[in-house]
Amino acid sequence: MRISSSIPAQCRLREVFNLKVYQITPIYEFKVPVVADVIKPELFEEKQLSEVLNVEVYEGNRRKRFGELFKVREVGEAEETTLELIGDFSKVRRVGRRMSRGVIRVKGVAGIGFGEAMKGGRIVVEGSAGSWLGVKMKGGSIEVYGDVGDFLGGAYRGEDVGMKGGSIVVHGRAGWNVGYKMKNGLIVVEGDVGGFPGVHMSGGTVYVKGGCGKGAGAFMKNGRIVLLGYVPSILASFSFEEIRPSVRVESERLKGRFYVFIGDLNEKGSGRLFVNADANKHLSFYEQLIEEL
Amino acid sequence: MSGKILIKNGFVFDPMNGVDGEVMDVAVENGKIVEDVKGVDVKVIDATGMVVMPGGVDVHSHIAGSKVNSGRALRPEDHYKDYEPRKPGLRSGVGHTVPSTFVIGYRYARMGYTTVVEPATPMLKQRHTIEELNDIPIIDKASFPLVGDCWFVMEYLEKSMFKECAAYLAWLLKALKGYALKVVNPGGLESWGWGGNVRSIDDSIPNFNLTPREILRGLCKVNKMLNIPHPIHVHANRLGQPGNYKTLIETMDCVRDLYDGYKPIIYLTHCQFNSYAGESWIDLTSGAPEVADYVNKHPHVVIDVGQVIFSNATTMTADGPFQFQLHLLTDYKWVNADVECETSAGIVPFRYRKRNYVHAIQWITGLELALMVKDPWRVFLTTDHPNAGPFTEYPRVVGWLISRKAREATMKKVNARALKRTMLDSIDREYSLYEIAIVTRAGTANVLGLKSKGHLGVGADADIAIYDFNPRVIDLSRDYKLVRKAFRRAKYTIKGGEIVCVNGEIVKSIEGSIFWVNPSISHDLEDTVVSDIRGRFRDYYTIEFDSYVIDEDFLVNSRPMQVKGGV
Amino acid sequence: MNVIRNVLCPFCGCCCDDLEVEVDSNRIVNVRNACALGRGKFLSIGEHRLLKPLVRVNGELVETDLDKAIEKAVEIVKDSSYPVFYGFGCTSCEAIKLCLEMADLLGGLADNISVVCHGPTILGLQDMGIPSATLGQVRHRADLIIYWGCNPVEAHPRHMLRYGPLSNGRFVAGRKNRRMVVVDVRRTSTAAMADVFIQVKPNSDFEVLTALRALVNDLDLEVEEVGGVPVGKLEELADMMVNAKFGALFFGLGLTMSYGKEHNVESAIALVRDLNKKTKFIMIPMRGHFNVTGANEVFTWQTGYPFCVDFSMGYPRYNPGETSAIDVMARGDCDLLFVVGADPCSHLPRQIVEKLKNVKLIVLDPAVTPTVKMADVAIPVAYVGIEAGGTAYRMDGVPLRLKKIIDPPPGVLSDVDVLNQILRRLK
Lengths: 293, 567, 427
Fold this sequence. Notes:
The complex is a heterotrimer of chains A (293), B (567) and C (427). Helix content of chain B is 33%, strand content 22%. Chain B is an alpha/beta fold and 567 residues long. Chain B has one domain (1-567): Metal-dependent hydrolases (TIM Barrel). In chain B, helix 8 links the parallel strand 12 (232-235) and strand 13 (266-268). The longest helix of chain B is centred in the last third of the chain and has 18 residues, at 523-540. Chain C has 427 residues and is α/β, with parallel strands linked by helices. Chain C folds into 3 domains: 2-43, no CATH class; 54-114 and 290-401 and 408-426, 3-Layer(aba) Sandwich (Rossmann fold); 119-285, Dimethylsulfoxide Reductase, domain 2, CATH 3.40.228. Chain C has helices spanning 36-43, 66-79, 93-106, 119-128, 135-141, 152-155, 159-162, 205-216, 231-243, 253-256, 262-275, 292-303, 325-330, 344-347, 350-355, 370-373, 415-426, and strands at residues 2-7, 19-24, 27-32, 54-57, 60-63, 83-87, 109-112, 129-133, 144-148, 179-184, 196-199, 225-226, 229-230, 246-251, 280-285, 309-310, 317-318, 336-340, 360-365, 377-380, 390-393, 399-402. In chain C, the strands form 5 sheets. A 9-stranded mixed beta sheet of chain C has the order 5-4-20-19-18-6-7-16-17. The longest helix of chain C has 14 residues, at 66-79. The radius of gyration of chain C is 23 Å and the shape is globular. Chains B and C meet through helix 1, strand 7, strand 8, helix 3 and helix 10 of B and helix 3, helix 4, strand 8, helix 5 and helix 12 of C.
């Protein structure tokens, strides 16, 4: 499945190949969390490199300058400002927060909350990523080659809604609560996911190619969840609607027999689960309901 | 605290002492206002061209206790974006509509407020309220226990045993360190114990031979018998329902014959929420003109407004049934917290939007009340924080009161149909600064009976606010934004003679005091009643009698007010 | 000999305050009205006592005096870049406030034991709210009481008598006037006392609650059985709930710590909420320790958040899973664990305890616990509620007063005193 990644309008106005590629590497191994939420491509466009190195980040409870923790080298030019994060960023948090353009490429492990509330641009993680990846995303795209944690494309506790736009593709597995409180956008996970994908959803699409845990679509009011792999059970508050020969996700048409369930009726919801019949023979008893209709 | 301060040359507004913008000096020594101060160690504050007022006294704001804390826990999203970092000598905190304790103290002090009352605390959980009040820095505080649906009270009133009821409540105020008697939706809370509500002040209350009217009259009598400085503080039945202005007026009227001409005998709070005309949400309109008319004609009543702010709010009241209805209407998350033998509580987040017809009517109703009630000593500025809006928006309300232009700027953006169906647009009245001083400090201190607050006379507590605007140079009506800005961040706030805020920044954190009322009554009566209550206590509560009582040393800076009760 | 009345039991979340303790020459000789758990605590405080401060020198714990122990603790705390203050189930609100002050001052993380117990309840209510009440409402009014995923006969022994089906209320009195339902994965001793016992398959509570809620909302179910429970039985339970005059649901770790966690609690909350459209229904979490509720209350009013509070950036931040002590320890993010009123090395998963080997550990405890044995600094403190007073909150949020019944062993201070000394040196 290809993700469309359009070049943001701002870049078109600039002369192409006048934007830079920076390599960012941790100077030493971090033992405590590093919050570096100011690090995003725009920062490098708006400030001189020397200013960026002075930007404040937190290492545990110590205020440090970005340049004390990371080495930054300008390594080339590209169509978009590109930050290459090389090394172990697993303790680094919220890089790419609110970014609106440019590229962040993590050649390693990404920490918690990368791409929080991002509006545009691209994040690519070649390793795995922590929880809350793309939380409250509004636009742009995220791609992860490895696994991700929980609350992928989700929200923080107590908020009304989470992801409102953009797209996330994870080639590996994802944890629990994928798309928690999602309102719009697209999340694709090629591996298995944990429990409660699409929980509290009110729109958008969650597409899981692997299997999932229990509770898919719990509390959902609207939106679509497409499950190609093994689904242990369907919640009793979802009603079997029909069998469809195919389901469309963005530009792709998935062929197969899909059981379609509507719910969560406990929330007067009209969201839909599309469950691949072939991978879920244990759910075939629902087919009898069609005969009864 | 022997600090000597001389505030020179300010425009002083001290309505309790009749001072209306005169240029005067104000002298402070040992935490009190004095005639004059001399010596080399006097801190001189040059208040030339600035407004000097007593520190603000907020008579109704939900700042502490079980339901406030449940509101904080319920709404982490209220805290994520609004926080205060720690500074040397100051604690960090969060919160917009439900701030954490330290932030409450700092933000009130920033606006020049120095005394705030928590108006509804469940008696069984009073210790929790006191613990939170203890943790709110700078400001002085008081709390009103919820007594209206308390089983002991209702049993006494059923049998018209007013003396015994008075003795019980005198003991209660002393035991719980409360300041006044609070009544919420009388009869409705006990009904809510079964999921019900009352629909009028003459409705019946399940299992009790009593009506809301009888509760109100009984407590009004008892309040007078005990000489409690503040009248019974009442949140009327049928709050939030279309057409409820009639119930509000009935509530005000039901104690009219008990008035002795001396001072008001009933306080109706956040009247905006109880002043709706119309029959449904569709034809909802403002009943403020009728309510204001009644208040104008009847000096036994005093009210506060509960003005809506177009922003996020968190509704939290002891009116359990109302809160549940609000949840059903909005589908927002809902907390319910009944308290055995006493009361209930409910919390639902909310947001007031200008374009929404109902919210616009609510906004209009509050302002109509404030502008149509003529006597500023009987109508006070509140937002029923955080129900109609956060207390940090008081300056915005001041702007609307002093300036028709300010009202127009907002009226342009509110639902036009709501404006057409109401009178606000035709009201030209603009409050003077003198009147603002009354409705935010002098009048509120007066109705509370806090003799050392709300004024700058000699002997008053040295709680002073200095605001940086010149009333002789600027036009209040035209330059309301300047006035608003000045009220948001006081130039100086002085609390108990200590300078706590300069240029809107907290420079010193101190501990405030907790005021409570101790009505003394005849020993025999007290002993009889208390031993009766003690004997029956285990049949009512799930805790021991001795656990209910709060020792005075549990309070930080206890300030009891001895009152001679008439029983 | 002295009898002290109105003693608050410092054991479980029932917070029974009617205990009577007989004291003779600073020794507790008898306890009346307590259950076996509470009585056991009072009568066993002499055992395994930590009597002298300990400091780790060259890998070994050696005895030292209080001053030196505090000095060492202060040194370690000042040096830390991400200290975690944890525990607070078994201590007073006063002690908790001091630790929060420390965490705020230093930029550390503060968390309490909710994170391994009713944390999911807190998460659930933050998304859904919660229809609740104080325990007396149940005693006076409830004609239907449900215990779901909890076993009060063993964990809260006096609960049923003081607040539940065996209690006498103003409007409903005694066992025979109430219906009692137990929902659990096995037939517990509480289940043996129920009118109706529903056995659910382990880790299926969410599905069962969802189905029950659907029935209460008059939806048709398309299956015959959910989570091992025949739909017929669920229909009966739904009927009981809807037809009750006043229903109460008590729930415990069976919901919070099985598959679904906070979603299980969300589902229970949504169910009780929906029931309020038809009748009166409330729910109360069965809190384990006598002041874990107090920890939540103090945390909330001082920081805005009930647990998992991270002050490292200078203001309170909250994101359970990220700022929760357990996850912080599991990821090896912290460099200091400061424990008051808890014993994490006994109760946390082994993988986490192993990570603590690389972390500095400061403990305040009355007893020699496994946590003490792993500590870098261990300071003995008094048993709160027996040798030191303070405020505690019952499982339903009712605040109560802990008493000092006897003096602690010589040289042992209250945790409030020790924390004050540490804080003074830090400021």
